[in-house]
Every structure is written in structure tokens, then in C-alpha cells.
Amino acid sequence: MFGVQHPEITFTKHVNTTDNFAANIGTTNVTDKQKDLSLGAESRDEQTVPKDLSLGPKSKDEQTVPKVVGTNPISDKLKLVKVINTKGVTSPDLSSIDVLNIQDSVKIVVADNANSCIKCYNYDDGTLHCVCKTSGKPRCLTKLGNGNHVAVTIPTHRQIIFVEVDSIITTTKSIHTGKSYSWITQLLDSSLAVSVWASDPGYVDILDLNGHVIRSISDLPPEPRYLTSLGESLLVMSYKYTCKAFTRVTLSPSSRHIDWVKSRDSMMLKDARGITCDGHGFIYVTDFDRHSVVQISADGDVIRDIMTQQDGLVNPRAVCFVRDCLYLTQENGEIKIFTWT
């Protein structure tokens, strides 16, 4: 049985107009392959946005991201195709990143923890599309379903907000929870997995879209922080200094099974800051201290450093894989975009 605590929940609804962040408008540096690798628009059928926020029977990547024919993630390399510089008068802290398709264009959404806001950048030219100030410092965001809705954690305020990204960012719902949730990701059944940062032993709550706790995944390594989903499994990166660990948990409607637990040392990791999966089932973890991205199999085995400082990485942080492109943020405020070669 799982120990379930139901937080007090209240809802608010309001619209955030775009603040004047002219000083932080991004600039972009593009490689020679930009035009060939531009994500472009989807077909009219693919542009249909479901009214609900459910994922349906497939993962987000399987539904919206066509695989590149002939790609071999085990042997192919990732090549830098674009750099967006988000640094302006104030230094950003881009703690989380995701990618949306909105009105025939690709938008990159980031949580700026330092400046207490959510920012959206245009993929094509790297300019700032819109900004939404938040009540506190946003830690993590995740795309909901295949549309333009995003859930954002604000642990300092024990809050999760739901926003819609269009010409502006609109807050559609705000949930006040009883816990300081840090990381968030959506599972195949449309529920939300959220990490309880300081828990020891570690545990992760599974929430419905109204913020009610469905169940808790307990007996994890201390201080679970970074999360992502891989099929029916949840990947959890714990952060406690004396017990940094990486865990894969397979979830079913009524139970959970811990598939494996790997130590930080066995996975070549010094300071993991972000985790994501691609459409082929491989896992990618950013290592802040080693200036690298580590590629890991679904069984938890390290394959290789797929990118290092020699590829231009400097203190990588948040990361996501969309449409066979890897997007990551760096400590210096840059967003870098890579694709297979």
C-alpha cells in the first residue's frame, strides 16, 4: 500500500499579458544546416490540437515526432545546428525546457528560475515570443498532451500552474498543493508525476490533472529530483550528496516495480541537471560538472558521452528530445539545438 496524502487544493484563473522584456530578447546563431533542419509546419491533420490534455495510447514523441529515417542513435553523432542567446540585462536561470508547435511554427518554452517567469522563444529566428511572470520561481515545466498547454511547478509557493501558450502566455489554472513539488512530467495515462525534493526515503507523487494525489511511489533513493517518462516507466534521478542514484520504475494502475537502481559513479555522472528520452528509447542526462551529455540505454547501461566540451558544451542543464532534435540550456543562458548526422 502507498501512503497517500491529499493536499489542500484551490483554483484561480487569470490572464497574463506579455511583460516588456526587451532587454532579454534572444539572439540566434545558426549553422549552415539551419534551412535543411528547420522543423517547419506539420500537415493540416497533424496540426489538430485535442481539446483535452491527455496523451492517449502513445507517448508524446510517438504521436507528434516522426522519426528520422535511417537514424542510428548508437553510432550517429549529434551536430549543433542553432544557438539562441537568452541573456540580457539580467542573467537567466533556465531550469527547464520543452518544445511546442503553435500556429505552424515551433516555439521553445523555458522556465527562468532567476527571473520568476516563463519565456517562449521562436525557433526560426531565436527572438522572444512572449513572457509570463509567475508568483514565485518556476522550477520545471512539461508539455501536456500534444497541444500548447504546459504545467509548471513553483516549489517555493507549493504551487503548480497550468498555462496556454499562444500569442501570449495565459494562466488557465493554479493549484496550491500541500507539498513543495520540484520536477514534473506527464505519464502515458495523462497523470502527472512530481518529485518531492527533500524526501528521505525518497518518494514521487502521482497526480491527476486537478492536482489530487492518486498514489505515491515510495522507497526510492533519498531526495528524488529529476524525472522523465519512458513508455510505462518513470525515470527518477536522486540528488542527495551521499547517495546520488538513478532509478527506473515500471508503473501499472495498481502497483509499481523498481526495475533497477544505478549509482552515480557507475553512470559516469558527477552533477546531473537534466534528463530526457528520445523516440528510440534512449535516455540522455546532462552532466553540469563534466560539460557533457551521457547517453544511456533503457536498461540503465551507459553507452557513451554523446556530447562533451569539445562539442561546445559548457555547464549544460535542462534538456529535452523532440523530433530527433536535442534541445538543452546552459548556465550562461544559451539554448543549444542539436540533430543527428
Summarize the topology.
Elements lengths: L10 E2 L14 E4 L3 H4 L22 H5 L13 E8 L8 E9 L2 E8 L4 E6 L5 E6 L6 E5 L4 E6 L4 E7 L3 E8 L4 E6 L5 E5 L5 E6 L5 E8 L3 E7 L2 E6 L6 E7 L4 E8 L8 E6 L5 E5 L4 E5 L5 E6 L8 E7 L2 E6 L3 E7 L1
Antiparallel strand pairs: 1-11, 2-3, 3-26, 4-5, 5-6, 6-7, 8-9, 9-10, 10-11, 12-13, 13-14, 14-15, 16-17, 17-18, 18-19, 20-21, 21-22, 22-23, 24-25, 25-26
Short description:
This protein has helices at residues 34-37, 60-64, and strands spanning 11-12, 27-30, 78-85, 94-102, 105-112, 117-122, 128-133, 140-144, 149-154, 159-165, 169-176, 181-186, 192-196, 202-207, 213-220, 224-230, 233-238, 245-251, 256-263, 272-277, 283-287, 292-296, 302-307, 316-322, 325-330, 334-340. With 341 residues, the protein is mainly beta.
